[in-house]
Amino acid sequence: MKKSSSIAIAFAVVLGLGAGLAQAGAPKRNSDIRIGFAGMTLNNEFHITLANGAKAKARELGVNIDVQAGDQHASAAAQLVIIENFLSNAVDGLIIVPSASEGLETALRKSKEQGVPVVNADTLINRDVAASAGLPNIPFYGTNNFEGAKLAGQFVAGKFPKGTKTAILTGIEGHQNAADRRNGFIEGAGDAIQVVAEQTANWEVDQGYTAAQNIISANPDLELVFASNDNMGIGALRAIQEAGLKDRIGIVGFDAVSEALNLVESGEFLCTVAQFPSKMGEIAVENLVKAIKGEPYADYVDTGCRVITKDNVQEHKDYLSQYVD
Prior knowledge:
Blueprint: E1 13-14, E2 34-39, H1 45-61, E3 64-69, H2 76-88, E4 93-96, H3 105-114, E5 118-121, H4 127-132, E6 140-142, H5 145-159, E7 164-170, H6 176-189, E8 193-200, H7 205-218, E9 224-227, H8 230-242, E10 250-252, H9 258-266, E11 272-274, H10 277-292, E12 297-298, E13 300-302, E14 306-308, H11 313-320
Parallel strand pairs: 2-3, 2-4, 4-5, 5-6, 6-13, 7-8, 7-9, 9-10
Antiparallel strand pairs: 1-12, 11-14
Helix pairs in contact: 1-10, 2-3, 5-6, 7-8, 9-11
């Protein structure tokens, strides 16, 4: 296995006023600070872990946090309502894990008008959308998804022969994460793979299952599936098992949720790429509180990733157990 990256916490510290986040007036006491956390969904362990990290840091700092999210990863309209409600209820700051960037411009503009600082975790808000809203420098805390997926591709390149027939399940169209994971995997794998099919499954288990069924039907000689998140990989595994092909088609996932870790342990997943969502939530709260109080804060943190195989799966399960309900 190629050497995986360690957690890189690279703080690029800037003054809050310089990035346009600090509010005027006397600093607030922590106990008076109210944060609105608009998640992508709370029906996915990864996002639950991210939210739990944020709540843990809020408790540590003595600030108030309200965590809300839509039912699906693609619940962009529901997320917009959540953000607008937070702004109507005069939160002091916002953490956004965007379901979609395009629908957020109005809410981002309103947050700027109200002087409410915004930080971004996990999934990058489209920079053109942010700039159009007058917030070109929204701080971001999350994984370098291209590099994480590249590690997965390098793992495949070290295990599979040239031209392995491969399908890629991608996330929500327009998500930078989806594009980065697809492109990073292809670059890392190089000529070890021949991509015979690509299909979006919107990060969802059921859509991963349906997409994999269709791909297997059209490509009976398929050898490998790269699922851009574990949910889609779990759905693909069911389709592969039903087709009686679990001994011939390997699966590589991304996110290292608990079920995927169990599948790595059992050999049903070849590997998955671990992110550190709890770290994203913790750092987002910590730096948003600093921005609200007019203190120096980090405008970018790469929270790191690594490939999880049978060799290190137990270590990561122990780590994750701290943050999963």
